[in-house]
Amino acid sequence: MTTLFGVPVQALLGQLLVGLINGSFYALLSLGLAVIFGLLRVINFAHGAQYMLGAFVALLLATKAGIGYWFALLLAPLIVGGFGALVERTMLSRLYKLDHLYGLLFTFGLALTIEGTFRYFFGASGQPYAAPPALQGAVNLGFMFLPIYRGWVVIASLAVCIGVWLLIERTKLGSYLRAATENPVLVQSFGINVPLLLTLTYGLGAALAALAGVLAAPVYQVSPLMGSNLIIIVFAVVVVGGMGSILGAIVTGYMLGVAEGMTKVFYPEASNIVIFVIMAIVLILRPAGLFGKDA
Amino acid sequence: MAHHSDTPAVPGVSVIPAAASIRVIFLLGLLALLLVAPFFLYPIFLMKLLCFALFAAAFNLLLGYTGLLSFGHASFFGGAAYFTAHAVKVWGWTPEAGILLGVAGAAGLGLVMGAIAIRRQGIYFAMITLALSQMFFFFCLQAGFTHGEDGIQSVPRGQLFGMINLSNTINMYFFVLGVFLIGLFIIWRFVNSPFGMILRAIRENEQRAISLGYSVSRYKLGAFVMSAALTGLAGGVKALVFQFATLTDVTWQMSGEVILMTLLGGIGTLIGPVVGAGLVVTLQNYLATSNFPVTIITGVVFMVCVLVFRRGLVGEFYASRLGRRLGLTSER
């Protein structure tokens, strides 16, 4: 068997793929967090719960209404995004003028409520969700078998990340968003409805989390607590990348996913904590994060 | 949490002359209640309550008086429980030595975590403490001496100072009560010391404190370590009360719980966290027998507190007409 650094190449490539898949979810989730934080200055603790909601909506659409994966991929983000917008309009928007920590605490409470409710009705155990027939099976790449669905996750999340980046950096709506991030009062005085912009942004962030949830449903099991530990890792990703840039959030997500996968090959005991260790090192050397601008 | 604008000092309400004596009588009454309580209520429940009350008060030292929201205090609480339990059970240390080791261990953890976390402020600080405590959780899950999912079980309570048998529940209760009162006294002294005053100055206006020549990060680190050490005191005692130390106490949910206790009771009041801890522990006890998940109620209470009464129960009372007439002020 071929080896590289004393490790079978198959294992190395296998973990590289697992790392890329995890990294896809880190990137999608930290992107949503960065978009919300950029404009609302709120750290959305409910992001993990919204990711879980996305997966559950897909599952319930399939079991209760017979709606398949492809429609779920569209419907679940819409439903969860709408729910997010509702929460923002009715409750979260009251907290903007206070210390930003209240936003964090509020969304923490929201996450506990949502996860507790789903646990009450669906139990704590995971439920399987099948990948669509078109994406089942595997292809032989010569050096390894690639499950088609896993390849799809990497490509789809990359496409979504680039799409959101283009939306924010290259469109008129995106320019409003960036302007409102810099100076909301001035933007409002130009006749742009900033409160509506805030609601849309939170909805967009929640929808991104839900999209990640649908993508994750066939890979991991659908369970009420699937997002609760993930969100803490994503927080560490965001700290490493620095909240300043959207692109930074995406790149850091993939990088840390791969770093985690590689750790699983060379030193499995540390794979749970490697991202946190990297975070601590980055904080010591570069407190603003890899892509952050503010000190 | 700075920039709190909804606690104006309303003029026109004068403090009544007997206010000071009424406050003292009230405190003495509370103390008397704590002294007789174990003869009427389940002592283990009361001890649990006192441990969490001290935990929340130590946490409030950081949030209420320094303005730093730590999302990782479970590391110090659960970490100290592990250290104490291991020292007492495996090394055969006396309970007071075991608890001191727990305090020292929590302070050491606090020094490391604090030194990393204070490099960023506000929301970042909260996220970094959360991530670091999650790292500590995984360490506890894999380290040998914690026994992973099983935890350290059947920890002996031992003889306090070699004389008092702590297996006796009433002895144990008065020991816990003594630790609790000493802990609260230390916190009270600390926040009213010159050090505490500088912490408040940092909370109100960090830039100005820097320009006045204070080494802000050292003061923040000092407060962080102090809070961690007192949290360790609560955690070490809790390990002896329940005679076990488990992973539950190092989870991020535990860090969230102590935030809720403080928020519900009143950030920046000495009594608030104690009241908040009492309510949350009572609620958990009440719901323990039903299959209704506590997290739903915890979550809703969190949202309601943040949305409509950020001063907390005790803070609201202090801000009420009666509270102001009694000369009560909250530190917010």
Summary, kept brief:
The complex is a heterodimer of chains A (295) and B (332). Chain A is mainly alpha-helical and 295 residues long.
Blueprint (SSEs and pairs):
The complex is a heterodimer of chains A (295) and B (332).
Chain A lengths: L2 E2 L2 E2 H32 L6 H19 L3 H22 L9 H23 L15 E3 L4 E3 H23 L1 H11 L1 H6 L4 H23 L13 H12 L4 H21 L7 H12 L10
Antiparallel strand pairs in A: 1-2, 3-4
Helix pairs in contact in A: 1-5, 1-8, 1-9, 1-10, 2-3, 2-4, 2-8, 3-8, 5-6, 9-10, 9-11
Chain B lengths: L18 H18 L6 H24 L7 H16 L5 H23 L4 H21 L16 E2 L3 E2 L3 H23 L2 H11 L1 H6 L4 H27 L9 H14 L6 H16 L6 H15 L3 H8 L1 H5 L7
Antiparallel strand pairs in B: 1-2
Q: What's the SSE pattern of chain B? A: HHHHHEEHHHHHHHHH
Give the overall average pLDDT of chain B.
86
Integer tally of domains of chain B: 1
Decide which structural class fits the backbone of chain A.
mainly alpha
Number of helices of chain B: 14
Low-confidence segments of chain A, given as residue ranges, are none
Query: Helical residue percent of chain A?
Result: 55-70%
- Order the strands across the largest sheet of chain A as they lie in space: 1-2
**Percent helix of chain B:** 55-70%
Determine and state the CATH class of chain B.
Mainly Alpha
What does the average pLDDT of chain A come to? 87
Question: Which fold name corresponds to the CATH topology of chain B?
Answer: ABC transporter involved in vitamin B12 uptake, BtuC
The best one-word shape of chain B is globular
End-to-end Cα distance of chain B, whole Å, is: 9 Å
Alpha carbon gyration radius of chain B: 20 Å
Number of strands of chain B: 2
User: From N to C, what is the helix and strand string of chain A?
Assistant: EEHHHHEEHHHHHHH
The CATH architecture designation of chain B is Orthogonal Bundle
- Walk across the major sheet of chain B and give the strand order: 1-2
What is the rounded distance between the termini of chain A? 49 Å
Structural class, from secondary structure content of chain B? mainly alpha
